[in-house]
Amino acid sequence: MLLPDPVVKMIRLFCWVLLIGVFFANTIIIMLSFIPFMFAAIGLLIKPPSKITFERSYTKDRVFSGDTIEISLDIEVHDGTGIVEISEILPRHFEVTEGSSYKVLWKGMGPQKYRLVYKLRCTTTGTYHIGNTAIKVSHCIYGHVHSFMERDPKIIEVSPRLFDTTKAKSISNFSKIPMPLGSVSNLGMSTLEFKEIRQYCYGDSFKSINWKATARNLNKGGYWPIVNDYEKEGKKSVWIYLNVSTSMSMGSNIKNSFESGLEAVNSLADFYLRQNAFVAFGTYNDMQEFIYPGSGQKHYFKILKAILKCSSSIGTARKNGNKQITLKEAIISNKKYISGSEPLFIIVTRYYDKFYDALSDGIDEMSKYTSYRRGGFKIMVVNIIGYGMTASTDLEMLCAELMQLRDYKNIQRLRKKCIWIDWDPSQMSFSKALISQVVGI
């Protein structure tokens, strides 16, 4: 068995001091030489902390961006004596709001239990693995350190926040939100295109009951029939495009323009799907993601899955050397699905002088597929103002306002072509910005 380095050093020290004492025939030096020998012998008899077990619990594994989760870590050290350092390895997008993810423990005689509790704020959309713990154990005498990693990964899914629909309940507010031009009645004729299965509601046709699904529901304890729901004729169509270039990364790891853009896309998709509209989702610039038009709760989860994928893929085209796809090119590639539907186009981006021409060309291309009504086309641009996210002092806030004024001139030209919404996430919520600034409809 190999001896630890501190023990070897103590034995060497013992030998050298002993030789010196013998050489000079000094009894005091000879007696002092046995001190490191005693420490080395006692150190070999006492074992460092070992046989460490963990039991981790979470309050929830699916949260919205900005929510907090509580993590409890029960630790039990069975053998040894010494110092135990425990540190939870967390993703950089998570913020500890209460407690601490780091703890130093003293392990005495006999098995001992400890509990580590802390709260995390999930600030960025995506899928994360939490549960990796770094452990350091130190010997109580000679301080020999042994490090290892305990892996017990748990998947935490962070979704963007939804649109605050409570603010849109009144007719005056609801009428301000742009809607597609196609007819959209929930009472329209049913088509043969299957939408989803749902719980029976008063007024549903007896023929629409799915008896097999109803039987399975009864076995699970449910008592309401399950019916087949089909698409209605005259659906509205909404196309949402998200800018995924690196210009959307303005801000910190905790809060940035891109994260706010994901929140806007998620809120708009959920809102229009609840209005019984077909919703399509696409990205442009650094990567291209496309979800075909669809409706229903199942389609919403398809869009949500694509949003979570975008969260970890921003800037990938530039890093991999792939060609960037402009907004105009993305629309042309999807024109066979757009033609004839007169959809509402929504662009979620952050205005940047470099992309003025590309954004203008994209809006012009969209205007070919929608009608001119009430002084404007059914095209809406959500401009995420990210300057305020990087400002922390009054002087920085003043600089952020000046940079916003610099962009105002070019934005005024774009306002003539579309419905323009400026949203500063550091100043107001998305629902407030959407309801208070929509003009030209």
UniProtKB/TrEMBL annotation:
Residues 196-309 form the DUF58 domain. InterPro entries: DUF58. The keyword Membrane applies. Signal peptide: none annotated. It comes from the Bacteria. The chain crosses the membrane at residues 16-46. The keyword ATP-binding does not apply. Keywords: Membrane, Transmembrane, Transmembrane helix. Pfam families: DUF58 (PF01882). This is DUF58 domain-containing protein. It comes from Pseudobacteroides cellulosolvens ATCC 35603 = DSM 2933.
